């Protein structure tokens, strides 16, 4: 699989979680970063990226934060940070061999039990 195997304009509905995991894995492998990609380092990196995502909304009112989606440049920047967060989530799943789809499905069942609808 090459870095260009997944078209950046592809839609969420047509891209599998495994394809995204493979994309991240190839990126890491090509750079020989496996020695740095342990769960601790990856979790710390995810935390840093979520902080960068939060910076785009820091000090905004709820209304201003909602308007970010209507500003193309701001929405792009938020998307970039969100993609960084997702890449680290996928890297952690790869490093720890966690099946994200089944884990999320099970967690949502537990969440529904803990937080039933009104």
UniProtKB/TrEMBL annotation:
UniProt keywords, alphabetically: Hydrolase
SUPFAM superfamilies associated with the record: all-alpha NTP pyrophosphatases
Coiled coil, from the record: none
Pfam families: MazG-like
InterPro entries with a match to the protein in the record: dCTP_Pyrophosphatase, DCTPP
GO BP terms in the entry: nucleoside triphosphate catabolic process
Superkingdom, natural source: Bacteria
UniProt GO molecular function: nucleoside triphosphate diphosphatase activity
CDD domains: NTP-PPase_RS21-C6_like (cd11537)
PANTHER family on file: DCTP PYROPHOSPHATASE 1
Listed name of the protein: MazG nucleotide pyrophosphohydrolase domain protein
Organism: Stieleria neptunia
């Amino acid at each position: 699989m090459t870095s260009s195997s997944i078209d950046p304009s592809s839609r969420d509905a047509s891209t599998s979680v495994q394809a995204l995991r493979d994309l991240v894995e190839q990126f890491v492998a090509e750079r020989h970063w496996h020695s740095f990609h342990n769960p601790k380092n990856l979790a710390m990196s995810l935390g840093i990226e979520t902080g960068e995502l939060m910076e785009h909304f820091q000090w905004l009112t709820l209304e201003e934060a909602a308007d970010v989606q209507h500003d193309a440049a701001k929405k792009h920047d938020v998307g970039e940070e969100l993609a960084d967060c997702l890449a680290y989530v996928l890297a952690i799943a790869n490093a720890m061999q966690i099946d994200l789809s089944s884990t999320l499905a099970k967690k949502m069942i537990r969440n529904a039990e803990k937080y039933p609808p009104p």
